Automatic annotation (TrEMBL):
GO terms for biological process: CTP biosynthetic process; GTP biosynthetic process; UTP biosynthetic process. It catalyses: a 2'-deoxyribonucleoside 5'-diphosphate + ATP = a 2'-deoxyribonucleoside 5'-triphosphate + ADP. The active site is at 117 (pros-phosphohistidine intermediate). It comes from the Eukaryota. Its EC number is 2.7.4.6. SUPFAM superfamilies: Nucleoside diphosphate kinase, NDK (SSF54919). Its cofactor is Mg(2+). It comes from Actinomortierella ambigua. This is Nucleoside diphosphate kinase. CDD domains: NDPk_I (cd04413).
Length: 150
C-alpha cells in the first residue's frame, strides 16, 4: 500500500551493545513495516560507496575504521513518510544534540559512535537499498495497515 522506503542500519557499536532489538522496536512501535533485514560484516568498498559524499572529510578514515569494526544490521523499513520520520526516530547526527526519546539521544554521546544510520532522502534511500540489497526487496501486503492508516 505504501511505497516509501528507507534504509536503516545499526552500526557496529549498536550491534555490539545489543541495541538491535531496541532500535527495531522503535520502528515497529511507530507502525512502520519491516521489509528486509540482514547482519553482515561490510567490506570497505561498499562503505566507500555508501558514504561517497563524505570521502573528502577529515573524519572519513575514522568512519571507515568504525564501520568495519564489526557486523552491522541493515534493514529496509516502509511506510508513509518513513524517510523523514526514520531520521526523527534516530535523532541528530551529533548524539549530544539529540533529544531524549530519540535513539541517539537516549543511547550515545559521540558523533563517531552514533549507533545507527538512516537515509536522508527518498532518492538516497532507494540508492542505498539497491546497494545493500542487490538481490532486491519484496513488498508485502500487510493486513495491519488498515489499523495504522485512515
Ligand atoms: P547522518 O548519519 O546523520 O546522515 P552524515 O553527515 O551523513 O550524518 O555523516 C555520516 C556519519 O559520519 C555520521 O553518522 C557519523 O557516524 C559520521 N560523522 C559525521 N560527522 C562526523 C564528525 O564530525 N566526526 C566524526 N564522525 C562524523
Ligand atoms: Mg547521512
Amino acid at each position: 500500500m505504501v511505497a516509501e522506503r528507507t534504509y536503516i542500519m545499526v552500526k557496529p557499536d549498536g550491534v555490539e551493545r545489543g541495541l538491535v532489538g531496541e532500535i527495531i522496536k522503535r520502528f515497529e512501535n511507530k507502525g512502520f513495516q519491516l521489509l528486509a533485514l540482514q547482519l553482515l560484516s561490510p567490506k570497505r568498498e561498499i562503505l566507500e560507496q555508501h558514504y561517497a559524499d563524505l570521502k573528502s572529510k577529515p573524519f572519513f578514515g575514522g568512519l571507515m575504521n568504525y564501520m568495519t569494526s564489526g557486523p552491522v544490521v541493515g534493514m529496509v523499513w516502509a511506510g508513509k513518510g518513513v524517510v523523514k520520520a526514520g531520521r526523527v526516530l534516530l535523532g541528530e547526527t551529533n548524539p549530544l544534540a539529540s533529544l531524549p526519546g530519540t535513539i541517539r539521544g537516549d543511547f550515545c554521546i559521540d558523533v563517531g559512535r552514533n549507533l545507527c544510520h538512516g537515509s536522508d532522502s527518498v532518492e538516497t534511500a532507494e540508492k542505498e537499498i539497491g546497494l545493500w540489497f542487490p538481490n532486491g526487496v519484496v513488498n508485502h501486503e500487510r493486513v495491519l495497515d488498515k489499523l495504522i492508516y485512515e
